[in-house]
Amino acid sequence: MASLSATRLLPSVTTSASATRFSYRSALSLSSLRSSLLLSRLFLPQKSALGRFSSRRIGYSTVPSPKCSASDPDQLKSAREDIKELLKTKYCHPILVRLGWHDAGTYNKNIEEWPQRGGANGSLRFEVELKHGANAGLVNALKLLQPIKEKYSNVTYADLFQLASATAIEETGGPKIPMKYGRVDVSGPEQCPEEGRLPDAGPPSPAAHLRDVFYRMGLNDKEIVALSGAHTLGRSRPDRSGWGKPETKYTKDGPGAPGGQSWTVQWLKFDNSYFKDIKERRDEDLLVLPTDAVLFEDPSFKVYAEKYAEDQDAFFKDYAEAHAKLSNLGAKFDPPEGFSLDDSPPKGQPEKFVAAKYSTGRRELSEAMKQKIRAEYQAVGGSPDKPLQSNYFLNIMIVIAVLAYLTSLVMN
Fold first, then answer.
1. Which residue is catalytic, options 102, 132, 209, 231?
2. Which terminus has fewer CB within 10 Å in the chain: N or C?
3. Could you give the domains of the chain?
C-alpha cells in the first residue's frame, strides 16, 4: 500500500571586547578605503590553488552496496529533487514515510555495537528483513526508489530512505525536518535485525506495548504521540495488515492505487486532523486502531494528543524534532557528526547582501542607513544581482572594525 499501513513503525500501521564594537555611523566610510583595499588581504584567507534490484522473484537486491562510506552531498540534493518529481506522479508519500521509519525503528538503545543495534542503516533493502510481517508492502517503496539509487550511486540506501521520508512529509504540507546525512549502509543481509522490533497495531495492552517498543528506541511519551500524528497520511489495507476496510468513500478513487481505509479525510495532506478525528470519532469511514484510541485514553499520552488537536503549530514543532531524532537512531555517520543539505549556499553561490546582518546593535537598521551601506557595498563591486563573495565583504568589515578601534585609541 502506498501508505502508512497498520504494519508501519507507529502502531504498526516511527568576546570580543566592548572596545571593538562599532556602528556604521561611527565607522569610516568604505569609500575612504577604496585606495587601501589591499589591506583586507591581511585578514582574508587566500584560496588554495549497491547493486541493482535483480531478484527474479520480486526485484530487489541482496548484493552489498558499492564501497562508499558516506553519501555525496551534491548527489543527495539532486536525489531530493528526483524524489519530489516521483511524489508528484505516484502519490507515494505515505509509503516512503513508512520506509524510512521502519529502517530506523529497529534500533535498540541497549545494544552498543553497530549494526547489531539496528536503526537507520539501510538493512531494509534485503529480502530477509522485507519479509518481516510489519514490513508487508514495503518492497513497493523500494522499487520506486531503486531507479534513483542507481542514478546516484554515491548515495547510501540508509540516507536515501531517510531523505525520501522527510521529503514526503514536507511535500504534503508538513514541517521542515532538521535532517542530517552521512549514514553508512550495512553490507549484507546477515547484518539485518531479528524480527519483532516494530510495533503491533492491536496488542492486548496498547499503551504498555507502545512504551515497550518506543522506550527501547530511546523515545518518550511526547515523541510517541507526535509521531503517531503522521497517520494523518496514508491508508491501511486489510490484505497487508489485517486492519481497515477494503475501501471507503475517501479512498475508492485514489489518488494512486485506490482502496484501503484512511485515518483522515485528506490522507495526502499533513496537518493535525488525525488528532481531531481520533478525538471525535464521528466518521465510521475513518480508521481508529487500538494504538490510536489509546492516545486519548492514557493520561500521559492524552496531554499531548489534546494539545496537538488544538494547536497545529505545536504539533508541527514536536513532530519535526521527533522525526529527525527517529531518523538518526542507530545510524553510523561518516563524517561522524553528519552533514546537512541546508547548512550553506550551493557551491559557487556567494552570499547575498543583507545590510542588517552586519549590524552589531540589537535594533533594526533604519532604511536610510541600509541605503548608505548598500551604496558603499556597490561602490566596491557588489550589487543585488552580482553579490560579492561573503568572505571578501566580511573582511572589509573587519578592516573597518580595526581602523575604527585604532581611531578611538588615537582620539582617546
1. 102
2. C
3. 73-191 (1.10.520.10), 206-319 (1.10.420.10), 369-411 (no CATH)
